[in-house]
Amino acid sequence: MTDPLLPELLRLAQEAARRAGELLRDGRPADLAVAATKSSPIDVVTEMDIAAEKLITDVISDQRPDDGFLGEEGASSEGSSGIRWVIDPLDGTVNYLYGLPTWSVSIAAERDGERIVGVVAAPMRGETYHAVRGGGAWATGAWEGERRLAVRPAPPLDQALVSTGFNYVAEVKAHQAEVARQLIPLLRDIRRGGSAAVDLCDVAAGRLDGYYERGLNAWDVAAGDLIAREAGAQTGGRPGERPSRDLTVAGTPGVFEPLQRLLEDFGAWHD
User: Fold this and answer.
1) What's the number of CA atoms in the CB half-sphere (13 Å) around residue 85?
2) CB count, 10 Å around CB of 189?
3) Which residue, of 3, 94, 175, 198, has the greatest Cβ tally within 10 A?
């Protein structure tokens, strides 16, 4: 890392993600309840989402008070330093609510609109993934030390394992199910993990060949997109576009483009 700011931002993101992950893992109340809803009555926020976001913003603000924030649970400020933190304090809230293990803390740092640091902590896996722009993607876990991440060699599309997610608005979900119905016979299989950040890191780690989803926000993908790309994945949205709420696609080279073309043909981005 030749830019002296990058190690500072990475260290801070790792500290905030670790502490938020510990809060969520160890502080989950037995009677955890829904605190609010978002896009629909089944798109939920718990008290722990809110508490984790406050912890993250407090940790970062304590050391970098001039930075800005964009957080899923309402943290929003412009800042004056040129650095903005994009935070999903609990990606996979429904999994967390039900006691399923696939959830994560996602923290990314942007400088002048460009993502430069990403950290995703998956506490129930005991794994944390991180990347700095131009420095590769790495993970810590049950193994010793840091492991450099790399995507899998590209299989033929009909042998690709692809993950996706579904919206919480019924009409959108119905359309996504139709797209999946058309896609499944053309792939090895489809998975639905429940955390976009984890899915993107699984592409980076070679556990998936591809991933796509409609309706994601910046905080869902900011860190995971950088980690996937630094591990050798290609990412985008509709052909020629960046990831957006219309569509996010990630895949190993050789899987990304045919998957993206099929999703365009099937109208995966349509209302």
Assistant:
1) 32
2) 10
3) 198
**136-170: pLDDT as tens digits:** 999 999 999 999 999 999 999 999 999 999 988 89
Which tokens belong to 157? Answer: 């599309």
d(CA 61, CA 68): 9
Q: Long-range pairs for 66-74 at CB < 8 Å and ≥24 separation?
A: 70/218, 70/219, 71/219, 72/217, 72/219, 72/220, 73/45, 73/49
Phi, psi (5° rounding) for residue 262?
Answer: -65, -45
Contact 50, 38 (CB under 8 A): no
Q: Can you name the residues that pair with 263 across neighbouring β-strands?
A: none
CB 191 within 8 A of CB 238: no
Residues in Cβ contact with 113 at an 8 Å cutoff, skipping those fewer than 6 apart = none
pTM: 0.95
